[in-house]
Write a structure and sequence with these properties.
The complex is a heterodimer of chains A (307) and B (104). Chain A is built from 13 helices and no strands. Chain A has 307 residues and is an all-alpha fold. Classes of the chains: A mainly alpha (307), B mainly alpha (104).
């Protein structure tokens, strides 16, 4: 039964990705892209990686969908996009890649457990109960640090391209109808609650900074879409501080650890540090993602000239 | 197999039938409003029956509360999304008919 379900997901993933390439209308492509994200989330669930599944469903299907829709509204293409041909070179390249990947996948030893045993052995040192969070924030903190840096760089790039130094003035017109206000009133407390829950859950179950940050970002985007001021009400200086708080938390830890340890990013009080970094990372991820969407081409640039 | 499990299977199958009906309606119905009707029916009743079926075999109270919470949130979002799409269609039709009037 499980095999049938797995095969179904695999076939759907391939079918949807083929459709994404072949479909000519942009709107359909975006909808298919969101569908692809949902199937991918299902596939991650079947691979027993709920952390990645939550992140994929929220980012791949949710926020990316909003970004793409927003961009589609901005570019206003002609009704009939050109017939796109897939270049033959690309087809050969893809087939070669598929063969190489299948070849290497076949040759993975059957009892290959990777570094999971090493991670389990080191769990007591981290003070956490959930190995994924321990790996992300303690054992491989360097990776997470640079990931936050990539996110920050992306936001900086978008802001630079859009010539924005702040996000004030990017308020959408508030909808006249009551349903939009009603749903915000009901869903917003829930989203904040679920964000906090996911953040706290990260210590001993699937969840953590990234998932919590994405849920909070969803709340921020919803506020903005309904015409409420979301992060635009933050004073510019606070907005900037929160934007890079996750990255700077890691930076501070790295610098401090140089004083009392011989290696960077090692810390004696693991749990307190991890909690602090996780809070900072959550806020920073949420603010970064909302800023990305608010500064995207779909939103009107503010009329005032940035100074 | 006790009575709860049998009831659970029956309710889950009911939910599946509503989902199937909603999907067929989404594909076959002629206009946006009736398609929305089919879609929200699937969301409300299909998910409702599935949740009802699952609560009968769930082991703890928090699990039941979480299932009911999922259904409630789905109800809220699907009814609001239905309103938004319907309202959008209504506004488009109003503009189109006004343009037609001004043409003649």
């Amino acid at each position: 039964m499980n095999l049938i379900f797995d095969l179904f997901i695999a076939i759907c993933l391939i079918a949807v990705s083929v459709r994404i390439i072949l479909v000519r209308e942009h709107f359909q492509t975006i909808v298919l892209f969101i569908t692809f994200g949902l199937f991918l989330a299902l596939a991650w669930t079947r691979l027993q990686s709920p952390d990645i599944a939550i992140a994929e469903a929220a980012v791949g299907a949710g926020l990316t969908g909003v970004l793409l829709m927003d961009s589609l509204g901005a570019i206003k293409t002609s009704r009939k996009p050109a017939r796109n041909r897939i270049p033959l070179k690309l087809v050969f390249l893809t087939i070669a890649l598929i063969i190489a990947l299948s070849y290497s996948a076949v040759h993975i030893p059957y009892d290959f457990s990777g570094l999971s045993q090493a991670a389990h052995d080191a769990m007591p040192a981290s003070g956490l109960e959930y190995p994924v969070t321990a790996v992300l924030l303690d054992f491989r903190g360097y990776d997470t640090w640079l990931e936050l840096g990539v996110l920050l760089a992306a936001v900086t790039g978008v802001l630079a391209l859009r010539r924005r130094t702040n996000l004030t003035g990017s308020l959408l017109p508030a909808p006249a109808e009551p349903v939009g206000r009603w749903i915000i009133k009901i869903l917003l407390p829930f989203m904040v609650l679920i964000g906090g829950y996911l953040l706290w859950l990260g210590a001993y179950a699937p969840g953590g900074a990234f998932q919590a940050g994405v849920v909070l970002a969803g709340a921020g985007v919803m506020l903005w879409q309904a015409g409420h001021p979301s992060i635009a009400v933050l004073p510019g200086i606070w907005w900037r501080i929160l934007l890079c708080s996750g990255f700077s938390a890691f930076l501070i830890l790295a610098v401090l650890s140089l004083f009392y340890a011989d290696q960077m990013l090692t810390h004696p009080q693991s749990k307190a540090w991890i909690l602090g970094i996780e809070y900072a990372a959550t806020i920073s991820i949420a603010i970064c993602l909302v800023s990305l969407i608010q500064a995207s081409p779909g939103s009107k640039p503010d009329s005032t000239i940035p100074n | 197999m006790n009575i709860f499990e049998i009831l659970s299977i029956i309710f889950c199958l009911c939910g599946g039938i509503f989902f199937l009906g909603g999907t067929v309606g989404l594909i076959r119905f002629p206009d946006t409003y009736s398609r929305l009707h089919a879609l929200t029916k699937a969301d409300n009743l299909g998910l409702g029956f599935t949740v009802l079926g699952l609560t009968l075999v769930s082991s703890s109270v928090p699990e039941i509360l979480k299932l009911v919470l999922i259904w409630t949130l789905a109800l809220i979002s699907s009814s609001s999304a239905c309103y938004f799409i319907g309202n959008h269609m209504f506004q488009i039709k109003k503009t189109v008919s006004r343009q037609n009037e001004s043409n003649f």
